[in-house]
Amino acid sequence: MTSLLDQTRFSESIYKPTMARIVDINDLTALDRLFTVELPDGVYLDHQPGQFVKVSVLGVGEAPISISSSPSRTRQTFELAIRKVGDLTGVLHDLQAGAMVGIRGPFGQGFPMDRFKGKNLLFIAGGCGIAPLRSLINQVLDDRGSYGHMQILYGSRSAADLMFKDELHEWENREDVELLLSMEKADIDWPACTTGYVTHLFPQIELDPRNTIAVIIGPPVMYKPTIAQVRNKGIIEGNIWLSFERRMKCGVGKCGHCQINHIYVCRQGPAFQYQHVKDLQEAM
Amino acid sequence: MKPKIAFFDFTSCEGCQLTVVDSLQTNVGLLDMVEIVQFREAMTEKGTDYQIAFVEGSCTRESDEDRLRAIREQADVVVALGACAHLGGINAIRNIYSIDEVRDEVYGDKGEWYETYQPRPIDAVIAVDAVIPGCPIDRDEFIAVVTQVLQGREPRIPDHPVCIECKLNETVCMYLRGEICLGPISRAGCGAICPKYGFGCVGCRGMISNPNLESMEEVLEQYGRTLEEARAKMSMFLTYQTLEEGES
Amino acid sequence: MQPAKILPKSAFPGWIDFLKRSYTVVGPKAMHGQTVFGEIETADDLTLEYNQSVIPPKKYLVPQREVLIEYKLDGTEVEAKFNEEATVVFGVHTCDLHAIKLLDLIFSKGFTDQHYAAHRDNTIIIGYECLTTCGPESFCRSMGTASAPESAYDLHIIDMGSDYFIQIGTERGEALFTGYDGVFTATEPDYARMNGTLSDKWQRFPYRLDVDVTEIPDLLAESYHSDHWQELADICLACGMCTQVCPTCYCFDIRDEVDVTLSVGKRVRSWDSCQIDSFALVAGGHNFRETRAARQRHRFMRKGKYQFDATGMVGCVGCGRCATACLVDITPIKTFNELYRRQQQQPEEVEA
Q1: Lower CB count within 10 Å: N or C terminus of chain C?
Q2: Chains touching C (3+ CB pairs < 8 Å)
Q3: Is B151 left (phi over 0), alpha (psi -120 to 50) or beta?
């Protein structure tokens, strides 16, 4: 057995993708689809939550996509939630199960789950930020005893924009998960749904700031106000983690596109400890 | 089934369609991929059932508008072919004069006989899905755009200035040769062919998205050229845009 | 290190002809009053005494356009492509040798870029000692790049009047003389002459920066919030020429190109520029370096600080190409000096 990373790194070229089969496609929203991808026999994905792969359609191009399945539920197959926002993702959405895509990676630094063990977790997702966060959430759920209390705040535009609805219901029904939703248009029957942004959920939560890790993943505009709320709860900078979206073209720290000041997001990120990026003007 | 494509000409020299014919000679494979149903420059048939329309030329009279709208109605994808369709181009130079002056100058006392109005790019009349810029178009870019359309993608054209490609050619800068060049504010994709052969860029592919025009003026001054000279150069392809800018 | 060689200038054309039998030979050539690196047929084509070339010889290691992989669209064949052309690059200035050393570090750090490595493996670098400065925009003396770095060259040529003193950098460099008998092993007096030539050259290399090269990373770090970036942005055309001609710029784009029959394609990388609007644009439409000021700052921060942090080498080698290319006279000499002047004026700059 070979890990995909070894396959990527030690094949003749770091730019040569491994061809993998899309085995299942499910609609998440009108714009988002969940692709289940199966690596060739003998190759497995060994990743950390928060890492990404470069996904390509031969003849179209390549894009960085965060891995949506948790390491605990991933081996030869893994899941990618992909929003239709551009050229390549548009083509991906037109594919049918059975189609082949190129995969390189997994690249970058994910979230250090070992450091989160024993801690309470505050997971905050905005929009399609839930896609990479789902990888963390399921990793925790599959090893539930190793972590403390888990709170999930998920901000979405409307009910139609909610991703992973089935899983949201599962999480909602669990005793050991506290799930709060916010929507700009709260058009859903949900036990805990607030009209507004994800930042509006903070008054409703209680947490022990000394023992809580916050993880924030969402669109660029979300970070500053959300971090302010998290800090307001008394969580120190070193316990706040973020993930950044950039246009990683190469994925291997060469092409320069994803650079934030001196940092290559594709190598040192996409997961970052807040204190390491808070002073970088180009970060948020 | 092969997609059906059609070519249309409005006011233009038809040089872009000639470039299409030329590009087909080295890309014969395209003919296996599409069925050309209308192409006055190259065939007599005039099929009216098509999905992809290439339009050369600018719209220069009201009746052109109806024809353009009919094309838009029929085609799934409309591609502006070349500077006249994309920018209004050379035809729009006359827009600095009133339409009556133009009639008098061109047709004398027969001016009233001819239908005409101020030339404009086709996107002033109909929605355009893609542009192949240039005067004439670049044959490789034509093939690349067609390929992307066949893939069902939105074709992308460069949005960086000609200077980039000119430097790659290691061409001596036109300003060092005492010539005006619109390279710093004009869209690349042409391989900086004009400076390569000693002619300053005239911006036939239009301007880049965010040109620094103030700084461009300072460059002109620094190299002893005037704004008027630069405007004269810009008038060749960019009169329509310059006048629009002035009005807004 | 292997003993150096002495090649009489009279034997130089013969050596070039000898090399041409096994290699593509490229070097500096005069063209329309400029110098460009291009293929040479005979020694007469070479202009070894030259001011900096328009595009640096990096183009032989990181081509402007390079096919990375070729494939069938159905995925049944995916093949990596590598440069296989054995090339000798003649007459590389010392600043450009430093730049190649930096590129070596970048493309081997973390993930090894095998395409770069293939170029490097197939490209023999012959340095050429600059004995005078290139022009008013060059400041190699200030950047510490007016002498050849230890690695990066296979052979290094020093012009000693009637003959060339040739330092051996690598075995494959030395092998370029295997089978060629017009060359001699350098003797003690040759070394003495060579050292005399080198020590004489420094009077022709003025310092052009007011700040020492070792202070540049800190200077840039402290200048991050300087107003000077906006002043540069006001005049910057964002044309991208500065990055195209820079020997240590290597940022690239990767695109797919497809045959019109939609059966085969290739993935191609080509030079990109951080000075172009769309460079830091992400899929959702957010541009993380939208202003020209942010982009100019990024460029200078990369040269002066970021590349230093990543590799231990300052990213600017003082060649002055960007200054020569710039139509609005944005130059590293003026920029570094102006930032330094402001830093000296306000030793305790307060962050906004």
Answers
A1: C
A2: A, B
A3: alpha
